[in-house]
Design goal:
Largest sheet: 11 strands, mixed
Distance between the termini: 46 Å
Number of helices: 0
Length: 222
């Protein structure tokens, strides 16, 4: 089973509690919106698109679930585009979609899961890195950026390719809009720490996370 991206930065690993206090169910791989996603192995598409059933829910956004016919199932979430349909068969390495920001996210990435049963249940998840081969992909070696601390009145700009602005701090906050790289904002209140991230209230009355756990989403704009 191969990694689903050719290049990537791991921003959250299996069982980490950055975004889920009960433990992350997969791994998060950062790449810009539109980056091709490849089937980790050959198999049949059990679900594709928006899912609201025993396989998952709307927090995953656009996603794909593949049955590999060997006891493993792989799940790909937060996709921008989905290029397969339920019932199709794919070979290993087939393009099944692109990296996006759909569902419950702070920025673009692929959430990738390996399950031993297609049903969403914590007992069915295993660490993807325990079964993935690295030979056909390359982790990007990138040092974690220094996390800026901002004050009321500071001018900042969006540095992520697409960042969600929310009505309140945390992943549970309703998404107001997507902010593109380079948009200028002003800090209008004190930060709130929630879901393992620092969230700042900015003009237009919304909250933006300063990082996604690895890559900076806000930069000082002097």
């Amino acid at each position: 089973m191969n990694y689903p991206l050719k290049n990537y930065i791991v921003t959250q690993r299996f069982n980490e509690t950055i975004t889920d206090s009960k433990g992350h169910t997969g791994i998060d791989l950062y790449q810009p919106v539109g980056t091709p996603i490849y089937a980790a192995d050959g198999g049949d598409i059990l679900a594709a698109g928006q899912i609201n059933n025993s396989y998952g829910n709307s927090a995953y956004g656009n996603c794909v679930l593949i049955d590999h016919k060997n006891g493993y199932y792989t799940f790909y979430a937060h996709m921008d585009t989905v290029k397969v349909k339920t019932g199709m068969s794919v070979i290993q390495g087939a393009v099944i979609g692109t990296v996006g920001t759909t569902g419950n996210v702070t920025g673009p990435h692929l959430h990738f899961e390996v399950r031993t049963n297609p049903i969403w249940n914590r007992k069915n998840f295993i660490d993807p890195e325990s079964v993935l081969k690295i030979e056909n992909s390359t982790p990007i070696k990138q040092n974690e950026k220094t996390k800026d601390s901002f004050n009321i009145g500071d001018n900042v700009k969006i540095s992520g390719s697409l960042v969600n602005m929310r009505k309140s701090a945390g992943y549970s906050g309703e998404i107001i809009t997507e902010l593109k790289n380079g948009i200028n904002l002003k800090i209008i209140g004190n930060k709130e720490t929630k879901d393992g991230l620092d969230w700042y209230p900015v003009q237009i009355n919304g909250y933006v996370a300063s990082t996604n756990g690895f890559v900076s989403l806000l930069e000082r704009n002097n």
